[in-house]
Design a protein that fits this description.
By secondary structure, this protein is of the alpha/beta class. It has two domains: about 1-55; about 75-355, Spore Coat Polysaccharide Biosynthesis Protein SpsA, Chain A (Alpha-Beta Complex). The chain contains twelve helices and 13 strands. A nine-stranded mixed β-sheet has the order 3-2-1-4-9-6-10-12-13, with helices on both faces. Strands 5-11-7-8 form a four-stranded mixed β-sheet. It binds 2-acetamido-2-deoxy-beta-D-glucopyranose (7 copies). It comes from Sinanodonta woodiana (Chinese pond mussel). Keywords: Membrane, Transmembrane, Transmembrane helix.
Amino acid sequence: MVNLVSTFYFQCCSSTKSRCHKKGSFFFFAILSTISFILTCFLLYNTAYRGNVNNTNIYNVPAMTFDMVVDKFRNAKVKSEADILINATSWMKTETPILTLFTSWLHRQDKYVVQNRTVQNWRFFWPHIRPVLFTNDTELGDICRRQGWSILPLTHTAIDGVPVVKYMYLDAMRHFNSTFYGFANADILFNDGLVNTLLTIRKFTDIYRDPVLITGLRTNFNYKIPCNATDMKNISKVSEKGKLANPMSADYFITTRDYPWGKMEEIVIGRNQVDNWIIRFSQLEKIHVINSTPTVTALHQTTETGIFESGSKPNKFYNSILIKEIRKIKINTQQARVGCAEFVTNFMKHGHIQIMRQPLSKQC
Ligand SMILES: *[C@@H]1O[C@H](CO)[C@@H](O)[C@H](O)[C@H]1NC(C)=O
Ligand SMILES: *[C@@H]1O[C@H](CO)[C@@H](O)[C@H](O)[C@H]1NC(C)=O
Ligand SMILES: *[C@@H]1O[C@H](CO)[C@@H](O)[C@H](O)[C@H]1NC(C)=O
Ligand SMILES: *[C@@H]1O[C@H](CO)[C@@H](O)[C@H](O)[C@H]1NC(C)=O
Ligand SMILES: *[C@@H]1O[C@H](CO)[C@@H](O)[C@H](O)[C@H]1NC(C)=O
Ligand SMILES: *[C@@H]1O[C@H](CO)[C@@H](O)[C@H](O)[C@H]1NC(C)=O
Ligand SMILES: *[C@@H]1O[C@H](CO)[C@@H](O)[C@H](O)[C@H]1NC(C)=O
């Protein structure tokens, strides 16, 4: 567009030569170029960040729940329940969901209600989301497999047997195909905003083909409040009673396949600053970080151990000590937070989702 304007100007000049040398024409030219430059930038920005991002909704996509898959094989007159399960799980492996969502937990009596809700909640999003539990506990693995979860062994653990984050991603990517891979804590319930947000972001990554990190804050609520984990309206209502978590934290980390997990330090889940370092690492690696808090409800079922659970465990500074040793830096939490992500998601009219540049404060 700038070229067009200047061509136009020079054509005018050659026909009326005397006027060209006047100062007024120069300013006229300068102003015209500036305006067209701004217009071009605006149009480019609009196409890049909004125009091509299609509006999507989970309800446009036909769902095949795990129960329906099981029924399908039951009707196919397969003999035992165990066979039905084997057939259903192997069929599920052929599907390509948008997200492989994984976690890990110990068999703990006091967390039963919480974990049962998570099992019901994550599998609700099949076939969009494939829930995966990392565990070597065969009994726990069997319970979850019957609920439509996939199970993977924990190949790399560090202090106190806690899983190393990067190997969960690398293992999940080796075993399953999906657009995105994400870790979330086992006490997080999502609403359908997660799938809708990812469908929108997929269109964005289709354009850019760059690594992306999608992360956000959780909403804390007392786990004793009754909550139906498979009723999206109920989850939204319960979240209105909850409280948004500390802005220095993040509770889920969703990345594309090309995210450089191989280069990541061997930080572990469930200890301080695992969230801050994943964000900071991404910023240093020039990866697009997207704050999805406005469009994803991530309900944290807070139990008696409280909201600062990672701070009460042994070796709580394991991650920050590791980063300090390797990188010789102290993680600046003011920078390493979702508020300093490059992009942010937002609802437009009719519940459609858009991705915008996030206004950044000085601390970022
Ligand atoms: C948006 O999605 C609709 C329905 O899937 C499709 O017909 C249309 O071509 C898409 N538009 C863009 C810009 O991708
Ligand atoms: C179900 O699994 C059995 C093995 O357990 C296999 O022989 C059979 O072909 C499978 N059936 C279907 C419909 O996939
Ligand atoms: C787990 O949740 C499901 C679905 O809400 C429920 O049917 C089941 O009874 C629960 N299990 C236990 C042991 O509470
Ligand atoms: C879990 O099992 C795998 C093999 O299936 C083994 O390599 C790994 O060391 C085990 N992890 C733990 C923490 O026991
Ligand atoms: C993932 O997809 C690729 C290409 O379609 C295929 O070659 C590969 O076998 C798939 N992997 C798994 C684990 O399904
Ligand atoms: C959510 O569902 C539970 C059980 O299904 C119910 O007891 C509770 O009142 C509901 N909460 C809201 C806010 O609707
Ligand atoms: C949870 O909500 C779903 C969908 O609204 C409903 O089918 C189911 O019966 C509810 N479960 C409980 C335990 O209230």
